[in-house]
Specification:
39% helix, alpha+beta, 5-stranded mixed beta sheet, disordered C terminus
Length: 805
């Protein structure tokens, strides 16, 4: 058909245009799979950019990010003009004069390359096309991409086509904004805003000329010109960019002379920079979000969501400071308690043979050495015991980090004896979680001790026994005698006998009201109540209140042998404070999309599970720990908590051998659960004076609430508990006789003499949680025993601890 064109020159032009059109169509359609993917009209109109999701507290403080690529896009007017000028001067000086492809620049680039001065000819728009649509990735190439040289030509042509499409759809300022929001600045920093925060701790709008030149200079090579890795190279490249800016008339030579002499100063150490790092709270929300994201077809790592938690940033800070202050003291106390002795002991107090060796053999490093040296113990031991410099978690180190000379074996001994904690504080009426401290440091201890770890509750479980007693018709004023108790268990061919003891190994033989008995945490009365109301009813009451873990209905259930989480305990006590209405704790209140539109809100589920009268009576009973003679919470008097007739309720708890220390604190506004212990249950304190919950966990609550009340901006005031919302028909206001020189009793739940072994084993271990990496290989039976009811029962008189205060 081209023969009809008589003019030879025009005919060649027509043929060229025809084949160009055919080529364009073939590339767009990916004819026969030869050319690979090309962006469609929809792709151009709605370019896909991975945007980090941001995590905020209820008071809008950024506390974390989720991302595959850490990116936070900003508008054109939120980018410093110095960045724009530096980019245009360095990367595409004719940016405002071409339509996506600069043929003039391409020609001069080819000439420069031929003369030995290699210079790129890609425009900013072409680079944007490459960044947005991954035009040089394998999945974008077709069959022709496998042919050397041809693939590059096809890819370049597709970039030209895409650049023209972008220029026809967007204004120049929109293109340069998209480019700066998508380009990588190394260290997993994508986009100018993230880079500005990462390297200079400021917003993109506030970048100076020199700072802008540093970041733009990185685009030539994000590794070689990274100021964190190669400061001098980065400074040299900055000066090149300054010279280019002067050449393009954005600054004058005198500015170049002055600015190029300035040192390159980074300010990378601020909260925003580290907001994407791991934390217990960030990880907890991430676990919760997985199901929501799947159900709602969202990707929290790419969709740029804004997630608002119920956490109050100031309260969180107060809790973390209370934890840090107390845990430093406790760590020193544990170290001093054992001195040069090995602290890993079995129930009889004997050192566990091969304890550290078994831990070492679980490490990847040991497995690597065993394979490399064919299990030769001399070589393996040499490297395991060779000291080297390492950074460890340390309360005395700067930012809780300390460089030390340790061997692998030394580090395992060091970490296995590290105490940890879990703290959760919630509003019992709204269900909003205000504080979540999953441990002492998430970088070194990943296990979350709020909702992942489950530990024996000790005497903090006793209120559920008393709740079941009230529900059976009893009143806080009903009396029982503190006396020896004998529990007989029919084993078919024999009768097993269990005789629990009190914390001080004494029985007063007094008649005590239920309120007084719970306040003093008297084991004998708790066991009598269990026998009276039935262990099954106690399990059912605890489950209704909010304990979701499996509970074995054994005779000692009230002494806390079952494993539960901090999360569950806070929920269970909150149900009592909330007039018997169980409210599901919520950690996330709402989620917004990148445009700020609310796409999801979250409200707690509510269900009346306890009679309102019994629930109020339980809050009255909980106050007994402070108000009754010898109440186990009275160590709180040491803290500035009791102005304006403030009322505080609570319960201490300690498991056998002082392995777990607990405190459950309730005020008119908050319910707070605190647990303290080592991840490995074979490591613990020696005696009641150092290891009871009143000595370990209670001080964290005291320090936390002291800070809450002093921070007037939070709005939490001291005062009395809420009045009952129903008529109280049961007798409760009964005065307790105050014997002279009444002593505060202990509150641990380890008790003398054994329950029958069969009952212990049949109690089940399903609720136990073995903490990561710190259980002892070869000691599995003991770990199982410790995580079952047997941990609540000592095997010798010396092991009995009582109940915690």
């Amino acid at each position: 058909m081209f023969k009809r064109i008589k003019n030879k020159f025009l005919r060649y032009i027509a043929i060229a245009i025809y084949f160009l059109i055919v080529l364009v169509c073939a590339i767009q359609l990916n004819f026969l799979g030869l050319f690979g993917y090309s962006p469609t009209k929809k792709d151009i109109t709605m370019p896909s950019v991975n945007i980090s999701t941001e995590l905020y507290t209820a008071d809008s403080v950024l506390i974390g990010r989720y991302f595959d690529e850490d990116r936070n896009p900003v508008a054109f007017d939120s980018i410093s003009k110095h960045v724009i000028n530096a980019l245009v001067a360095t990367e595409d000086v004719r940016f405002y004069k071409h339509s996506g492809v600069d043929f003039w620049g391409l020609g001069s680039g080819i000439i420069s390359t031929l003369t030995g001065d290699k210079r790129g000819a890609s425009t900013i728009t072409q680079q944007l096309a490459k960044n947005l649509y991954r035009t040089r990735y394998n999945k974008s190439g077709g069959l022709l991409a496998k042919i050397p040289g041809v693939g590059l030509i096809v890819t370049k042509f597709k970039e030209w086509m895409t650049a023209y499409k972008l220029e026809s759809r967007y204004e120049k300022n929109e293109i340069i904004t998209m480019y700066l929001n998508t380009v990588s600045f190394s260290n997993n920093s994508y986009g100018i805003q993230t880079a500005a925060r990462r390297y200079f701790s400021k917003n993109a709008s506030d970048l100076s000329i020199n700072e802008s030149a540093v970041l733009v200079g990185m685009l030539k090579g994000t590794t070689i010109y990274n100021p964190m890795r190669n400061l001098e190279k980065s400074r040299e490249r900055r000066n090149v960019v300054l010279a280019q800016m002067a050449k393009a008339d954005y600054i004058d030579q005198s500015q170049v002379d002055k600015l190029s002499k300035e040192p390159l100063v980074l300010h990378a150490d601020n909260k925003d920079v580290h907001a994407g790092e791991d934390s217990y709270l960030r990880a907890a929300v991430e676990r919760w979000l997985e199901k929501w994201a799947e159900e709602n077809d969202r990707d929290i790592y790419k969709d740029g969501l804004k997630i608002y938690t119920t956490i109050n940033s100031k309260m969180q800070k107060h809790a973390e400071e209370a934890v840090a202050k107390q845990m430093q003291v406790l760590q020193r106390r544990l170290k001093n308690a054992w001195g040069s002795e090995e602290p890993w002991r079995d129930l009889s107090g004997k050192v566990i043979p091969g304890f550290i060796d078994n831990l070492v053999k679980k490490t990847d490093y040991y497995k690597f050495l065993a394979k490399k040296y064919d299990n030769r113990t001399d070589s393996i031991d040499y490297y395991l015991n060779r000291k080297k410099e390492m950074e460890v978690f340390s309360w005395k180190g700067e930012r809780l980090r300390e460089k030390v000379q340790m061997s692998t074996v030394d580090s395992i001994k060091y970490y296995v004896t590290m105490l940890n904690t879990g703290v959760m504080s919630m509003d019992p009426y709204s269900g909003e979680i205000k504080v979540w401290v999953g441990g002492i440091d998430h970088q070194y201890f990943k296990y979350d001790h709020v909702n992942q770890s489950k530990r024996q509750a000790g005497s903090t479980f006793k209120p559920f026994v008393y709740l079941a007693a009230l529900e059976s018709g009893m009143t806080p004023c009903d009396q029982m005698q503190d006396k020896p108790v004998t529990i007989k268990i029919d084993k078919g061919d024999s009768i097993e006998v269990w005789e629990p003891k009190n914390a001080d190994w004494n029985f007063s033989y007094r008649d005590m009201s239920l309120r007084w008995a719970m306040a003093r945490s008297v084991n004998s009365i708790t066991v009598q109540l269990t026998e009276k109301v039935g262990a099954d009813n106690i399990v059912e009451a605890a489950h209704r209140a909010g304990i979701e873990s499996k509970l074995s209905p054994v005779a000692s259930i009230g002494l806390g042998p079952n494993d539960v989480s901090v999360f569950e305990m806070a929920n269970g006590y909150s149900t009592m404070m909330n007039h018997g209405e169980r409210v599901t704790p919520i950690l996330v209140s709402r989620i917004e999309d990148y445009e700020g539109n609310v796409i999801a809100t979250f409200k707690p589920e509510r269900k009346q599970v306890i009679d309102k009268q019994d629930a109020w009576l339980m809050t009255y009973m909980l106050r007994g720990g402070m108000e009754e003679p010898g109440g186990t919470s009275q160590a709180l008097w040491e803290y500035d908590l009791f102005n304006k007739e403030n009322e505080i309720g609570g319960k201490t708890g300690t498991s056998s051998e002082y392995v777990d220390g607990w405190y459950m604190g309730v005020t008119k506004d908050l319910v707070t659960a605190v647990w303290v212990g080592c991840d490995d249950r074979n490591i613990h304190f020696k005696n009641s004076q150092t290891g009871e919950g009143s000595k370990t966990a209670l001080p964290i609550f005291g320090l936390f609430m002291e800070a809450i009340y002093k921070d007037k901006a939070l709005g939490y005031t001291q005062g009395k508990f809420p009045a009952p919302t129903v008529e109280i028909t049961k007798k409760y206001n009964c005065e307790t006789p105050r014997p002279p020189r009444e002593e505060v009793l202990s509150d641990s739940t380890a008790i003398e003499d054994e329950l029958p072994l069969e009952e212990l084993e049949n109690s089940g271990n399903e609720g136990a949680t073995q903490e990561e990496g710190l259980s002892t290989p070869g000691q599995g039976d003991q770990i199982d025993v410790l995580s079952s009811e047997r941990d609540a029962v000592a095997t010798k008189p010396r092991d009995s601890i009582g109940d915690d205060e």
